Amino acid sequence: xxxxxxxxxxxxxxxxxxxxxxxxxxxxxxxxxxxxxxxxxxxxxxxxxxxxxxxxxxxxxxxxxxxxxxxxxxxxxxxxxxxxxxxxxxxxxxxxxxxxxxxxxxxxxxxxxxxxxxxxxxxxxxxxxxxxxxxxxxxxxxxxxxxxxxxxxxxxxxxxxxxxxxxxxxxxxxxxxxxxxxxxxxxxxxxxxxxxxxxxxxxxxxxxxxxxxxxxxxxxxxxxxxxxxxxxxxxxxxxxxxxxxxxxxxxxxxxxxxxxxxxxxxxxxxxxxxxxxxxxxxxxxxxxxxxxxxxxxxxxxxxxxxxxxxxxxxxxxxxxxxxxxxxxxxxxxxxxxxxxxxxxxxxxxxxxxxxxxxxxxxxxxxxxxxxxxxxxxxxxxxxxxxxxxxxxxxxxxxxxxxxxxxxx
Length: 408
Prior knowledge:
Blueprint: E1 6-12, E2 29-33, E3 36-49, H1 54-66, E4 69-73, E5 83-87, E6 96-108, E7 111-117, E8 138-141, H2 146-161, E9 167-177, H3 184-194, E10 199-203, E11 206-210, E12 213-218, E13 221-232, H4 237-249, H5 251-269, E14 272-276, E15 282-285, E16 289-300, H6 309-316, E17 324-325, H7 327-338, E18 348-353, E19 358-362, E20 366-370, E21 373-382, H8 388-407
Parallel strand pairs: 1-4
Antiparallel strand pairs: 1-7, 2-3, 2-10, 3-6, 5-6, 5-18, 6-7, 8-9, 9-17, 9-21, 10-11, 11-20, 12-13, 12-19, 13-16, 14-16, 15-16, 18-19, 20-21
């Protein structure tokens, strides 16, 4: 006798919805940019995976769950139907989190919809925006104090000069504690307001706003935005234009960027009939930083029509933007020099739908919430022209997005 299938229903909603304001306080999930994307809550099913096969294990589990569902979708768009929210670890040795939410609300191109799992009527959306309390935080060093992290950067530069590696990305962490449970919804709202061009994400307590789209797969077209090379903004438009021009000419930053673009382009070429890699990067302006950016695009080859998001993720991660070049050597150096667990920082985060399409970014500018504490992360690409003191300053600026989102 066949087991009874669980009903999944997607139906269109009316007006434009303020997605982040819909989230309840229990384990909210988010992938929102410029007010569009997906938010979700409730847990229909969840699992953790780890090990070198974690991407294929995730795919197998997702497909097993889909086989138990009966899907009614009257919208038929990317991101409708049942959705898998994912947050993969940087290292295969650590746990990645997969969540199928009970309720998903989406918004794209003026169209909003709701998906829910179960036979009950559609959930009632909140009428009022929840008032959220600002908290006061006490800050402490992370795994390494700043001076020690500078020393590790110096060691990485030595290894580069010796020819052991071309680029290494070294990250550091900061810890903050407060007196009440930290609510990710306030952080998401602040990040979205201050950095509207980034993707505000939340999955299982990991919350942040990433400017880096690791992978978008939609109808056989794949896109990856590569960021590498950074300079701080002053807030003075004229000065920032001059800084942007200097960033675009910086040999150190251009070298770092070339490694990252090459890493992504080589990975995507395995799946694509054609790829487009611009000859030179553009400068992406954020509220506090500017980055060298390149959007790599490709069309999946007809012979690879079975390729889904999981398959591409397995080849893309970790890219040179968060690990280094050559990847295996850089990963070993990271393990030796960082002295910390990255967890799901710098791993893929986002969503995948039942068609195998999805959007995932790299979990940057983020923090991991654990009750009344949060651990923030920031990383810097180290190349031959790097300077430990400047890299420390860059990491401090990268922390500022999350620090201000906590305290606004």
